[in-house]
Amino acid sequence: MAVLRAPEAWRSRALAKWRYVQSRPMALHSVLLGALLVIFLFATAQTQAYAGGVRRDAFTLRGAIPTPVLRYTPPASAQTPVVAVLAHGYAASKEIMSSFATDLAKQGVTVYTFDFPGHGASPTVYGGAHHSGVVDQLVSALSEVVDYAMAHAPPHAKLVLLGYSLGTIAVGEYALRHPTMARLQATVLVAGIPNDRPSLTTPRNLLVLTGQFDLPGINDIARDSIASACGATANAIRGAVYSCQTHTTDQRKRVILPGLDHISIVTAASTHDTVIQWLSATVDPHIGRAPVNADVRLHWMLAGFIAALLAIGPLIKLLALTLRLRPAQHRASLASVAASDLPPVAPAVLGFGALAGALGVALLALRAYLPSSFWAADPFPFTLLRQQVSADVAIFFVLAGALLGVALWWSPRLRAAVTLPPRREALAQGLIALVVTVFLMVTLGALSTYAWESLALDPQRLWRGVVYTILLWPFFFALRSLLRAMASQFKRPALADLGASVLILLALVGAILMNFGRLSYLGILLPVFAIIVLLLVGVSAWARRTLAHPVALMATLDALLLAWTLAATLPLVA
Questions:
Q1: What average pLDDT does this structure show over 463-472?
Q2: Domain boundary residue among 259, 293, 327?
Q3: Burial class of residue 348 (count of CB atoms within 10 Å of its CB; 0-12, 13-18, 19+)
Q4: With DSSP H G I counted as helix, E B as strand and the rest as coil, what are the percentages for the chain, rounded to 5?
């Protein structure tokens, strides 16, 4: 009998301890937040440890185009007489090439990455009056870095150029403009969109890489490029791998990497392995002797990201307890709360109809007002923000917010939903949203800026982030009010959030399709926007379990996170 009672007694003690912990939420969520921060710090340390003995130095070249640079120097014992200059893609920065740079430096290659004008920390604006002017600007920035790199390299050092996406335009054009540059031993185009076709002799030792699921047209561009470089017809280029050797003994190769898309291709271990093998065969046989696995670095970085994102939950709870905000009602009383304390609830069809209508009309208005050419001058008021694509997205949400606000005001049943909590509580919720955003900047943003895409906000990007927040907030406040009005009609209110998120993403897809010439590059960032939107669905569900009326919190957090993304990524223009 004593043996039989033991499990029951153990369960009783465990349940009593759990109830005791639940009765002290401050302690419980403090421990949870601390644990997640420990995981984040450990993942960050492992991400940095992957670099091993590679030294990373940051500086700015003060040439005709001031250019921020990162130099990756291998350990002295592993150095080879090879220098590589890596060029990033559109809406990216030099940091996105850090994974490539680290793996190449481990092979003994001295690597330089840099920011194109208007990107990252560059103080120079991006663009020109026409496409050729932009190409000249990109090539000039690349040329300055190449000149510096070769001036500080051994006398007989070999040069490798690698471009990703937009960077392939600069790399390909530079190589074609320097056909007799003996030190340029290999050119690599990753997910390329080169402006001109290679010849049978230039660039030397050309490697063209694309992902199986790359953007539409990228694989066709790669096929045409390698066909031109090999003197073959496009129809002759078949299969995932195609190679040839010209009469100059230079090698040409095209590879389609399975399972990769336009974003993952730049960090994937399979991409790095293919490039390293190519450089070992065509430039220096010492390259490839050091073992590398970029996926290990990527997985640690993702672990850090996930830990930082999960920490939002206990952080919101702790801040709400500290500020003594009204807690959420118990699940069992939700129905009575919806019936008695909340304003009349609009039917879901009416609510989603208002949202879809506001997004659709704003989309049509934006299409009618925006020029279709990517290089056309921005109309007023887009010129005030001077940031490509980001300003378009912000103005779209301004229009949609105004239209949604009109719909909410026009319908009495929807208008009743637009309510703020008491002033002190609304301000406290706004403060929580700001603290959460700063927390993400310090954790996720810092790790991303070190190991992936720069999310840092220097002064010229910070003020734009503030403006974007102000422009976006009315739309998200109206949206969150609308979702609150519909919440009691859903057994799982998160489904309403998810439906609204899908509508917003569909609207952005529609913007791309309707004005592809101008907004085509928004497609590159759409997966990032989708991740943010889906993340906010989860945060909203948690906020509803934490606070009685989290509209101000979620509207402010929505606006801050999207504004941060827009301000940090897209290029600044004249």
A1: 97
A2: 293
A3: middle
A4: 60, 10, 30
